[in-house]
């Protein structure tokens, strides 16, 4: 089984055979089970989201498009990657939190081909005993600076976040699942989150706010229910439409370019920003 061709089910089978706890991963996130996160993610991968090709994604694609840093550390450590590499990756996690940018840096240290090679080698050997996890954990904690480095919280409501499964389910676990959100939508720059590599015309030549590709982590509720579904009542729409007309951003027929919709998007953000500023003044 070549690394390039490993399927999602084959990776899931290999993950199930790995030990539950490893010292460096446990020092980074002592209250989480990275193994359980991998099993839940791989078992339910095709059901997350609405993109029909998800069921066809192989192990390489999934590894290269997930961004939960501590689970990379666990997979590498449990599969037998050399400790020096794992420590370098762990120090990145301890120093800069959890993000897609950080995950990309970690994958440069722990690339998929290396992980797959060790997974396949481990498959042909006897299971590794866990050893003295307490002693190893103490040493790993000291190495990366101590404490729970992955106490992630939603950027809006502040709730504790996790990646242990039940994403989008109507349970406390599902509602508090971590999910990332771009401050300025990728589609505004001609990119699609669901169709990687597909480019369309850009709405903005450059981001007006200097936040292209910047993102934050939220709970499922705040991301999917709040950010994706702003409430605009009929009177709100009329008032915003009046602003659009006053700014010369209305249209009779669609023009060739995107300058006016770009203007409407910018104006909508201005409305939000001024509303927040007004609230802040009232609260002080």
Topology:
Elements: H1 8-16, H2 23-28, H3 34-43, H4 59-65, H5 69-79, H6 83-96, H7 100-109, H8 112-123, H9 133-144, H10 172-175, E1 178-182, E2 215-219, H11 220-227, H12 234-246, H13 259-283
Helix pairs in contact: 1-3, 3-5, 5-6, 6-7
Report on this model:
- It is a single chain.
- With 284 residues, the chain is mainly alpha-helical.
- 50% of the residues lie in helices and 4% in strands.
- The protein folds into three domains: 3-144, no CATH class; 172-227, no CATH class; 234-283.
- The protein contains 13 helices and two strands.
- It has a two-stranded antiparallel ribbon with strand order 1-2.
- It starts with 7 loop residues before the first helix and ends with a helix.
- The relative contact order is 0.10.
- The model is unreliable at 126-139 and 143-149 (pLDDT under 50).
Short description:
The protein has 284 residues and is mainly alpha-helical. It is built from 13 helices and 2 strands.
Mean pLDDT: 83
How large a portion of the residues is in β-strands, by DSSP E? under 5%
The tally of domains stands at 3
Rounded Rg: 22 Å
Strand tally, please?
A: 2
Q: Structural class, from secondary structure content? A: mainly alpha
Query: What are the secondary-structure elements, in order, as H or E?
Result: HHHHHHHHHHEEHHH
Biggest pleated sheet = 2 strands, antiparallel
Give a quick set of tags describing it.
284 residues; mainly alpha; two-stranded antiparallel sheet; 13 helices; 2 strands; elongated
């Amino acid at each position: 089984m070549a690394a390039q061709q490993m399927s999602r089910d084959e990776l899931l089978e290999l993950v199930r055979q790995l030990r539950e706890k490893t010292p460096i991963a446990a020092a980074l996130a002592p209250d989480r089970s990275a193994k359980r996160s991998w099993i839940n993610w791989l078992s339910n991968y095709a059901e997350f989201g609405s993109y029909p090709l998800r069921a066809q994604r192989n192990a390489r694609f999934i590894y290269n498009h997930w961004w939960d840093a501590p689970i990379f550390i666990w997979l590498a450590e449990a599969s037998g990657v050399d400790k020096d590499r794992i420590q370098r990756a762990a120090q990145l996690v301890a120093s800069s939190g959890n993000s897609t940018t950080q995950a990309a840096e970690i994958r440069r240290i722990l690339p998929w081909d290396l992980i797959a090679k060790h997974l396949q080698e481990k498959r042909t050997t006897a299971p590794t005993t866990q050893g003295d996890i307490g002693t190893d954990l103490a040493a790993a904690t000291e190495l990366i600076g101590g404490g729970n480095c992955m106490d992630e919280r939603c950027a809006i409501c502040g709730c504790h976040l996790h990646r242990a499964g039940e994403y989008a389910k109507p349970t406390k676990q599902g509602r508090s699942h971590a999910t990332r959100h771009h401050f300025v939508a990728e589609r505004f720059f001609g990119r699609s989150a669901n169709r990687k590599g597909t480019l369309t015309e850009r709405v903005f030549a450059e981001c007006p706010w200097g936040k292209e590709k910047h993102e934050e982590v939220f709970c499922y509720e705040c991301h999917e229910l709040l950010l994706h579904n702003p409430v605009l009542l009929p009177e709100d729409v009329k008032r915003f439409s009046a602003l659009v007309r006053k700014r010369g951003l209305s249209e009779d027929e669609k023009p060739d370019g995107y300058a006016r919709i770009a203007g409407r998007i910018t104006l909508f953000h201005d409305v939000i920003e001024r509303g927040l500023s007004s609230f802040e003044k009232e609260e002080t």
